[in-house]
Design goal:
- The protein is of the alpha/beta class.
- The chain has a single domain, classed as Zn-dependent exopeptidases (Aminopeptidase, 3-Layer(aba) Sandwich), CATH 3.40.630.
- The chain is built from 7 helices and 9 strands.
- The strands form 2 sheets. Strands 1-3-2-6-9-7-8 form a 7-stranded mixed sheet, with helices on both faces.
- β4 and β5 form a beta hairpin.
- α2 crosses α7.
- The protein is globular and about 50 Å long.
- The N and C termini lie far apart (40 Å).
- The mean pLDDT is 95.
Length: 257
């Protein structure tokens, strides 16, 4: 086991219905794994190691919603908590053209050790928080890169991902598209508001965090992907949390869910 819990929880006693989660909060690699998995500082600052800006948005969004939050304290390159235990991408050896040297010799025994040390504790704490109330709404926060290598720029500012449970996803997308403050912020940047519906990714992987903690329990849920260049600074993270929080609150109220 790791010396300390591989996650952070904030506002465990807050009364709000939401549980705000950040599966890819940090690029931290524990010292037992060398601190960097053999990657350069530049590579560890890329999206392959964590979701840029998502942690700050998560913390501020949870505060504004007066709800608890949970975030990982290890890089997705150590082990990906948003993958099921049998997913072949659980421990990546090659990611977006970069060889993850520290994972090159990660055999089944090592993967099992990392599951026990990092994956299991995070998900146990996640489930305990989700189970605190019967009407919890899980809101997962992620970020995506503005452009993949040799691909066109991504037009979306926000992507909302979902699987088959779209009870809150559909009205939330409509509310985002109609939100004046959100439109104004995007236009201020010289862009046109584009909300992705299961873009830039498909919204469901069997065994992922939403599947494990929301879908299998019938809990309301949505996954918010923010384009990372919009939330690189603390100020922008607070700004986007401030834009999203009232829309989430109003959408939940309007649906009566």
């Amino acid at each position: 086991m790791t010396a300390k819990a591989p996650f952070h929880i904030f506002g465990v006693d807050r009364p709000g219905r939401f549980l705000v989660t950040c599966d890819h909060a940090t690029n931290r690699v524990p010292e037992e794994l060398g601190g960097d998995l053999g990657l350069s500082e530049a590579d560890m600052a890329r999206h392959i190691a964590y979701d840029i800006g998502a942690r700050g948005v998560t913390r501020e969004l949870a505060r504004l919603l007066d709800s608890p939050s949970i975030e990982t304290d290890f890089s997705r390159l150590v082990i990906d908590p948003n993958r099921g235990e049998t997913d072949p991408t659980l421990v990546m050896k090659l990611y977006d053209g970069t060889i993850i040297a520290g994972n090159r010799h990660a055999n089944a025994k090592e993967v099992t050790r990392r599951i026990t040390a990092y994956h299991h504790p995070y998900h146990a704490a996640y489930e305990a928080l989700a189970a605190q109330r019967d009407d919890v709404v899980i809101c997962a926060v992620h970020s995506f890169t503005p452009q993949l290598k040799n691909r066109p720029p991504r037009p979306w500012q926000v992507g909302i991902l979902s699987a088959y449970d779209r009870r809150i996803t559909d009205p939330f997308i409509k509310a985002l598209e109609a939100a004046p403050a959100l439109k104004a912020e995007v236009e201020r940047r010289g862009e046109r508001l584009v909300i992705g519906d299961n873009d830039p990714y498909d919204g469901h992987l069997p065994g992922d965090a939403i599947d494990t903690h929301a879908l299998k329990h019938g809990r309301l849920n949505l996954l918010i992907e923010l384009r990372s260049d919009l939330i690189e600074t603390e100020a922008d993270q607070r700004l986007w949390a401030g834009l999203l929080a009232p829309i989430l609150t109003e959408t939940l109220k309007a649906t009566g869910l």
